[in-house]
Amino acid sequence: MEELPILLPNPGWDPRILAFRSADVVTVFAILTRRWTLLVDTLYSSVGALELARQALQAAALLHGGKAPPLLVVNTHADWDHAWGNQTFAGPEAAFPAPVLGTRECARRLRQAEDASELRAMQAREPQRFAGASLVPPSLAFEGPLEIDGGDLVAHLLPAPGHVPGQVVVWLPEIRHLLAADAVEHPMPFVQGPGHLKDMMETLEALQRLAPLRVLACHDLLDGDPRLIQKNLDYFSRVREAARTHDGTDPQSPDLDRLLDLPFEEFCGGVPRQAWEFYRGAHLKALRAALAEVQDPAGQDGAPGC
Ligand SMILES: [Zn+2]
User: Structure pTM?
Assistant: First the structure.
């Protein structure tokens, strides 16, 4: 079955921000500014990205009295659920040609062979879900923070490594709203692997210092509650503490969470049953990353993990 983005109800965040959920996979966003119809992430199929653009432009036209401001697209990072719809906006097949912004690391990922073979494998397994998906790097690559002046709102793209290198979040200071990509998540964000936990903690601390009123993440309940950042920080602090207390544990043990006295069940509240295995995987990754900090402090240079 085709997975099309559905506009979610807005329980009280700024009405210029639209949230679109695609199946139970991911939520992406549109920010309707005076100058730009800004899309934040592009989903993972042609039909999904087309429908996202269509709905966002329609809403923008309605808001601005008939004519939608031009599209501008941001990739928060290169993972499949965020950037495999880029071909709808950039490249020879683009149905809605628009500049696509992403970090240099995001662009590098979308050019690399590993991501291309991941796409082939996933398309072979689920051809309909990933129909038309292809790897199209951002047309404008940047490094460090970037500001997009929308006329009525300025969107600050801020580096937020930890989940993956090269990730950015979107901070809207005038309304203190944060689109947190995959940096913040319930019950825990995915750490890429050993060497990335320090980045994850520093990112969460930096986001906490922004003191947002609303936090909207791509894999979350989407109630906008900013306390999720502190909850994630508390979680990783416990993970680090457990690793320090049990520093001789084999990081590859499948029972790592029990051996470290931090069973996954403690964190699964509010997580649908079908997602437990997925988040248990996230939990084990976090524990392994924390053990690696203790057991191999010299290896903490952010080397690619996964
Ligand atoms: Zn994601």
Answer: 0.94
